[in-house]
Amino acid sequence: MxxxxxxxxxxxxxxxxxxxxxxxxxxxxxxxGGNSALIVLADADLDLAVDAAVFSRFTHQGQICMSANRVxxxxxxxxxxxxSYVSKVRSLRVGDPRDDGTVLGPLINRRQSEAxxxxxxxxxxxxxxxxxxxxxxxxLFEPVVLGDVTTDMAVAQAELFGPVVCLMPFDxxxxxxxxxxxxxxxxxxxxxxRDLDHGAELAKRLDTGMVHVNDTSIxxxxxxxxxxxxxxxxxxxxxxxxxxxxTTHQWISINRGRRRYPY
Length: 263
What we know:
Elements: E1 4-8, H1 11-23, E2 27-31, E3 36-40, H2 46-58, E4 68-74, H3 78-90, H4 110-125, E5 129-133, E6 136-137, E7 140-141, E8 144-147, H5 154-157, E9 164-170, H6 173-181, E10 189-192, H7 196-203, E11 212-213, E12 233-234, H8 239-245
Helix pairs in contact: 2-3
């Protein structure tokens, strides 16, 4: 019987696997859902931030656990960022993935497409501003950009897993950190700023397993620890971390003399 259960999938299924593994004294390694935040500070290179944020959300139609569902932008640069972001997203071609010009292909199934569309509708009803609202045709889901999203909206709390993004303005870094951490997930994230040291210090305040300064939230390298916090699972994979997770330590001693015992 295996002593380690490794699972990649939804938080709901991962929680069940962890319960069963615990009852049977098996070690679970879980890579689960995500709701990553990409933070854009006032001093960020906005062209770079826009490119990284678009890639972080729409690669593979947003069907990546590390995708940035939420893009948090300092209010001083929010209008300019939003205009550039929407313009770039609007240029993404949706269609047959066999066509070289296609960027966004279909979602995994119609159920996911319908559930995502319901979340978009709910977000708009709750006050989100549809800066860009594409059409839904079966599993082909054109990009949706929702502006002025707040943390109490369902669309900001869910793992969207599709080409829908929340733009969320903030006024202070303390507010940005609180907003980024206001989620049950904690897999990946990104911080954009021209002050790299400051970006790294801010990254330490985020309750997430991985943070990338001036880059995309989507990154997985074979020799760097991969894993999340909170409902995004636990355990770390890749490189030496996989070796530690899938092996145990055994102590074997050899007494080459004769130990003196007290009795």
